[in-house]
Amino acid sequence: MKHLLVTVLVAALVVACGSESPDQSSGNSATAEKAAAPAVDGEKVYKQYCIACHGLYGDMGASGAFNLQVSALTADERVKVITEGRNAMVSFKTLLNEDQIKAVAAYTMTLKKEGE
Ligand code: HEC
Fold this sequence. Notes:
mainly alpha, binds heme C, Cytochrome Bc1 Complex, Chain D, domain 2
């Protein structure tokens, strides 16, 4: 019984998240993000958990946070840093699930400065 309820809830969440994008063409052409982005909205996760140190654009550097605009790490390496933490960067493994971590790692790839 409980399992069914959880499954339904999760399904509802996924549907709710997925239906956000198509109708409102907010912002300018952010097409690059879409290709790699999994079901979770990495931008949302980033704004909730990461801007305190990295800032909205990744370059704030509070508490010695790395400037994500110049980070050369691959998405996989970022997943590792986010999951396990590194020095002053906290581990997010208890706060975020795997999909959220992958999504936010993918989002940080889009912060890179490449002639906006
Ligand atoms: C408590 C402040 C803090 C928060 C919150 C935080 N970070 Fe960090 N982050 C850091 C610091 C400090 C470093 C540099 C770690 C080091 O010196 O080894 C870092 C490094 C990183 C790196 C490695 C960059 C590189 O090229 O080496 C990535 C990727 C990263 N953070 C992503 C994130 C993401 C995504 C989030 C949100 C889920 C996040 N961080 C939240 C402080 C933070």
